[in-house]
Amino acid sequence: MNATNDDVFDHDDAFDEADDETFADAEFDVGRLEHELRQAAAILDPVPAELRRIAVEAYALHDLDARIAELTFDSLVDAIPVRGATDVPRMLTFHTGQLTVDVEVTAEGLMGQVLPPQTAGIEVLSGPQTGVTLTADSMGRFTSDAPPTGPFALRLRTGDEVVVTEWLRA
Predict the structure, then answer these.
(1) What are phi and psi for residue 48, nearest 5 degrees?
(2) Per-residue confidence (pLDDT) for residue 54, from 0 to 100
(3) Mind listing the pLDDT tens digit for each residue in 10-57?
(4) Model pTM?
């Protein structure tokens, strides 16, 4: 066996090319691989409970610099009740700087408008879990078929600005 270094390298190159062809021809399920790697990491190196708690608390502060939109009108408090009217929608108006958000809350869901009209990403917050995500169209209108339950707030992302409304009970 008088193999030179060149022969060894030629053999390795041929082996590498065969591996590349095998992987190129075979269908590779990336989602399954990710799932199995996550399971292995959870078993072999789980995240300590205290670190998880600290991470959740830190994430809660990720939009700490958001402007707070003040509740300026609530139909439960500010409107004159109409005699005989039942199941009347709750009308809310929030205001901060040049931005106003009008919201109507009913048993069927909520709808509203951002003024001045503009597109915005809107999250209906309802506690520590992720709430419903909505999108305001170019006229600033948004709707949701899921009525808020319990305390809720809205987080609006308009361009570089983040605005969070006061928390209210549905």
Answers:
(1) -60, 145
(2) 80
(3) 555 555 555 555 555 457 788 889 999 989 988 999 989 888 888 777
(4) 0.61
Closest CA to 114 of 122, 104, 102, 132: 102
Contact between residue 121 and residue 159 where contact means Cβ atoms under 8 Å apart: no
Q: 170, 167, 92, 157: which is closest to 122 by C-alpha? A: 157
Start-to-end CA span in the chain (Å): 83
N residues, the chain: 170
Q: How many CB atoms lie within 10 A of CB 155?
A: 19
User: CB-based burial of residue 113 (10 Å sphere; 0-12 exposed, 13-18 middle, 19+ buried)?
Assistant: middle
The CA distance from 139 to 153, in Å, is: 21
Rg (C-alpha) for the chain, rounded Å, is: 27
Name the E strands within 67-150.
67-74, 90-96, 99-106, 109-115, 120-125, 132-136, 141-144
For residues 36 and 74, give the distance between their C-alpha atoms in angstroms, rounded to a whole number: 50
Q: Output the six-digit token pair for 42.
A: 């959870």
pLDDT digits (tens, 9 = 90+) for 51-109: 888 877 776 666 667 888 999 999 988 877 777 677 788 999 999 989 999 999 998 99
